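Objective 1b. Sequence-to-structure analysis of NADPH:quinone reductase.
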Amino acid sequence: MADKHMRALQYDSFGGGAAALKHVEVPIPKPSKGELLLKLEATSINPVDWKIQKGMLRPLFPRKFPWIPATDVAGEVIDVGPGVNNFKVGDKVVSMLDVFKGGGLSEYAVGSQKLTVLRPPEVSAAEGAGLPVAGLTALQALTYHGGITLDKTGPTTNVLITAASGGVGQYAVQLAKLGNIHVTATCGERNIDLVKSLGADEVIDYKTPQGAALKSPSDKKYDVVVHCATPIPWSTFEPNLGPNGKVIDITPNASAFWTAVVKKVTCSKKKLVPSLLIPKAENLEYLVGLVKEGKLKTVIDSKYPLSEGEEAWAKSIDGHATGKIIVEP
Ligand SMILES: NC(=O)c1ccc[n+]([C@@H]2O[C@H](COP(=O)([O-])OP(=O)(O)OC[C@H]3O[C@@H](n4cnc5c(N)ncnc54)[C@H](OP(=O)(O)O)[C@@H]3O)[C@@H](O)[C@H]2O)c1
């Protein structure tokens, strides 16, 4: 395996968008201690992947060039490093690759056993590959930060999910509906029926005045907002929140961080909580289990072969995906 090569897409410097991705042949990586070598069947692209290319996460990512982007993959274990006990050659898995290493836009990648879970036959590679970043972010925003119980035992809660047609939003709507939740969602007009079909109780077009103001059609005040769209000022959220309303902001800008601090130090009952994904295998296992049981699905925007991976990249940068963009080697 060590002498063999694989096809991959990589870039050599910051910037340049899809045109800067180069098709290359590079050595197949070797699994180190605790790692698995995966033959990839599907990779999903997240906005963070091209934000890294733009240099928006400098100096953390990437640590070196050339860089093979993307972390969310599904595939088959074809080799294991020392100390791997929970997986064997032939296992089908979903994995979130090390964010400091990337490697997903390729035919093979190494993933840590700590962030890999088994993928049952009911979960396709594409559905599984959609889950790591987007699914975990939706789950953690609702549960850890929003304090929502994802079964029918919790109190009735009013939740707003913005950009409900996107990779994160589509999972957030479906997960919220596992709980005792009234979901209001925003999306573009063309996706209203889809978002309703995912379970949203009320859907508003973000391009209308009501949508821009985030107003619930039934005059509900939100207990929790999972904010997945581009930054919106606190003054827009505030009048729509219940007395203890919380905005879980997965796209916080400097102003949002400032609002979060001010709300905290003034002991405000209404809060803004910037949310950053914490990769956890037990959460990923939970999501894969929900897909297996038919309680969660991955809405797939489009699939591209690796040979056309730059088109998938451009589609994600364009910002109008409905669900997840998948690349298949
Ligand atoms: N904090 C974290 O840990 C974390 C984790 C994951 C993602 N994120 C961030 O969260 C954001 C969303 O990620 P994603 O993967 O869901 O993105 P995405 O899939 O690219 O989202 C695209 C969707 O958003 C819709 N949209 C765009 N602007 C909107 C608006 N103002 N109101 C309502 N809908 C809108 C688009 O609808 P139209 O096509 O109709 O415009 C499109 O369907 C990104 O900025 C990403 O970087 C953060």
